[in-house]
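Complex record, two chains
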Amino acid sequence: MPQMILRRIGMMVLIMLVVGLLLFMINEGDPRLIARSVLGPYAQDGQLDAWIMQHGYDRSMFIRYFEWVARVVSGDLGDSIIYKRPTSEIFWPRLANTGILAGVTFVIMVIIALTLGVLAGMKEGSPQDRIISVISIATTSIPEYASAVVLAGIFVFWLGWLPGTSSMTSGFNVVELILPVMVLTLYGFGYIARMTRASMAEVMTTPYIRTAILKGLPYRHIIMKHALRNALIAPFTVIMLQINWLLSGVVVTEFAFGYKGFGALLLEAALRRDIFVIEACGLAAVFVAVFTQTIGDIGYTYLNPRIRFK
Amino acid sequence: MTEETTDLPIVPPDSMLTNMLKAIGLLRESPVGMAGGLIVLMFVVLAIFAPILAPFDPNAPTLPFAFPGTASPDGGVFLLGTDHLGRDILSRIIWGGQRVLFYATAATVSAYIIGILMGLAAGYFRGYQDEIISFFANVILSFPIMVLYVLIIAKVGSSGLNIVFAVVFASSPGVMRIVRGVTMDIATRDYIAAAKTRGEGSWYIMLVEILPNARGPLIVDFCLRMGYTTITIGALGFLGLGLPPPDPDWGGMITETRSYMTGGFAYMAIFPACAVSLLVLGFNLLADGLREVSLRD
């Protein structure tokens, strides 16, 4: 077990290093492009060369890459070209905002998905199973940008209950969080629900559940004490992997509602070639994704005694 | 003794057409799959016959801010209204559907070709080939997909070809993983050993013996992936990184008209949003139906 955890963590570090190299190559591979981004479109060739020499960009890319890794690990993310301030000053608050949005969504999404999945898988083929399955396919078919528009149409412009943007200009406001969370939950819960349903349906056909039923145990007791424990192992990995998808959705949703999170920052930086911000956002996104995946793998091994005691 | 063997009936292998007809026949057993197939078919027909079926020129500005059902000054009716520039929304949805379907198909098929080749090689050769291919697949798959798209498109610029490139880059590793798994399984079968004994080359075995037998899970995944790619193309359009205007693109239509929702013109953005969702729903239902049917026998 500890050996497996070390292996997974080693893999994680290796993937981060390669991802870092890719990001670095894309953004800082060509020194003239960096100089151009920093100095602006009107800088002359001489100025570009001087800047490149002055900042050490005339050296080999691989030396620069290792220096860059050392700087990033020590927390120095470089200066934002647009904001003319250290990237970390802009980046961390934005990431915290996304953490709030994604965290709230995650909790609500997982509760809804597991409940519906268990309810559907309890009685395979029943009307409640059919209805839940159709709902979860239908909602996974509505991309965030489509549901954002439709829900805004209903709740903002028709009913007038909710604000249409979530820029939080006058301090943190929970009401502004409702629509983005709804949009993200709507698109994301269906997949987890379907996986939970499949897992639950499989457990319900096992002999030990039949034994429990034949013993005359109360149905509620069978579900809560016997079925759930095993049915929730498989969805655990799916739930952890879903965080990767959630980060994708966050980019679109933050743009849709003007929410000041890391996704919106990435988009702005990418469109305006703010390379150090792009790197910070890219690294953070991949780190969260790889980290949760590793946790998912380790957790799955830990939860499943058949693998644990091998 | 020889007579007994000659008595065996020789069954010619089914042609591709009969196979397809069989598959459609099977799909009839799944109402969900049929519904999905019909939705997709509807969009395909709309896309192919867009020049005939679209009532107006999708880029011609006529009557701005016309509500659904308004009569056009030049004759005809704007069934779904017009947008802020006076372009007929129904015509834009139909032409936009053609673009979306074209690029989604081109991108998904290309991703499949690359993914299949990599997956076959990884699953058949095993060893260091597998290690290398799988590692790079893991690296690419560890990016949240939208982050990867934004990074790529911001770097290479937004055009139809670049969107195809980005989709191939981002989704071929997923295809590769599926193909790799199935290949590892099939490679242990007797007929593969027989082919090896006959002295067939590795790529012949992979492409002729393994690939056709791996098609079941791949067809289901292909439908799902067509849905994802449709979502992606729309999302890129929505973020302003999509297919270049003025030709219609569903995601771009939503972004362009979203700011007019306040004045009661919500329909401008909602109709294209419904179009994307309906097409994706079609692909998802079709995939679900195909999976159900393939598990049945």
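Note: Chain B has a mean pLDDT of 85.
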